[in-house]
């Protein structure tokens, strides 16, 4: 299935799609030293959020999708060189609003989970 959104995103920072289907996506990335916040190797949570958001946008897969809200939980830390994978599923659609559940896993362990509220607009948000 073709990806119709977020065409210009930097996949090194927000993840590489590995599976896309109707209302579904899987996106993966490897945490790099550029994402580190301290000398122990903790990855900044914003990058994990960005990965999850990217997966949610691809699950909706519309050129004019935007994030309206998110309720998330960080469950385990991610460190440099860890590979994580986000799995996103559209679970509800009501008009322009779509709710997307996203889990980010390292191996089989969930490190982040969230519900992303996405909106499909009639035109691009900046137009």
Q: Note the total helix count.
A: 2
Strand order of the largest sheet: 1-2-4-5-6-3
Kindly name the structural category. alpha+beta
Low-confidence stretches: none
Cα distance spanning the termini: 27 Å
Helix/strand order: HEEHEEEE
Name a few traits of the molecule:
127 residues; alpha+beta; Thiol Ester Dehydrase, Chain A; 6-stranded antiparallel β-sheet; 16% helix
Description:
This protein is α+β, with helices and mostly antiparallel strands. The chain has one domain: Thiol Ester Dehydrase, Chain A (Roll). It is built from two helices and six strands. A six-stranded antiparallel β-sheet has the order 1-2-4-5-6-3. The longest helix is centred in the middle third of the chain and has 16 residues. The radius of gyration is 14 Å and the shape is globular. The relative contact order is 0.22. The mean pLDDT is 96.
């Amino acid at each position: 299935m073709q990806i119709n959104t977020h065409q210009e995103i930097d996949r090194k920072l927000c993840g590489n799609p590995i599976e896309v289907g109707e209302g579904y996506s899987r996106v993966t990335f490897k945490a790099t030293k550029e994402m580190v916040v301290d000398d122990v190797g903790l990855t900044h949570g914003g990058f994990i959020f960005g990965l999850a958001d990217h997966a949610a946008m691809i699950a909706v897969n519309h050129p004019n999708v935007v994030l309206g809200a998110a309720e998330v939980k960080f469950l385990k830390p991610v460190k440099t060189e860890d590979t994580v994978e986000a799995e996103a599923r559209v679970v509800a659609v009501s008009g322009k609003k779509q709710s997307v559940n996203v889990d980010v896993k390292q191996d089989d362990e969930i490190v982040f989970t969230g519900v992303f509220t996405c909106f499909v607009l009639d035109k691009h948000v900046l137009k």
